[in-house]
Amino acid sequence: MTSVAHNQALDQLKEIHLPEPINLWPIAPGWLLLALITLGGLIAIGWFSYKRIAKNQYRRLAIKQLIMHFNDYKNHQSDRQLVVLVNRLLKTVAIQRYPSERCAGLSGHMWVTFLAHSSVGIKSIDTTVFAVLSVQYQPGVELTVKQRDQLQINALLWLKKHHDIASMEGESV
């Protein structure tokens, strides 16, 4: 082919037309359905997370108070006052968590038994430590460092992990 033939052949070519770009809208029904399901799932996760956080807020506040009571012990050095404050905190949480007619009037051995029943199955808790709470109104309450530490650890565990005792309805507390 000669250059004249090339020019004639090139002159016969038309300009290249590109296809129109793919439009993103309207979106396909499958993608729309997937977006709605994802949005619904995120809303459900958010709702359940909020309910769980709100449900357990009393635990977080009680744990902060317990830590504050043991930190304040360094100032007042009164074992009796510490035992009274810890007992009052545990009682307040119990009344808030369980029906008040179930635990509000309990004291002494019955109260310690209630604490033991509401912590059944928590392997790391030693409920015998709660016996200290039943002698809070006796004069001259004195705790050893070990008893104080065990009371703090077990009260903290009870606040974190106490559970529903509805399955024990038939038992007397």
Describe the structure.
This protein has a domain at 58-167. It is rod-shaped. By secondary structure, the chain is mainly α. The protein has helices at residues 3-12, 29-55, 57-76, 79-97, 100-103, 108-117, 145-161. α3 (57-76) packs antiparallel against α7 (145-161).
Write the layout of secondary structure elements.
Blueprint: H1 3-12, H2 29-55, H3 57-76, H4 79-97, H5 100-103, H6 108-117, H7 145-161
Give the strand content. under 5%
What's the helix count? 7
Q: Name the shape in a single word.
A: rod-shaped
What is the CA-based Rg, rounded?
A: 35 Å
Could you name the key traits of this structure?
mainly alpha; 173 residues; rod-shaped; disordered C terminus
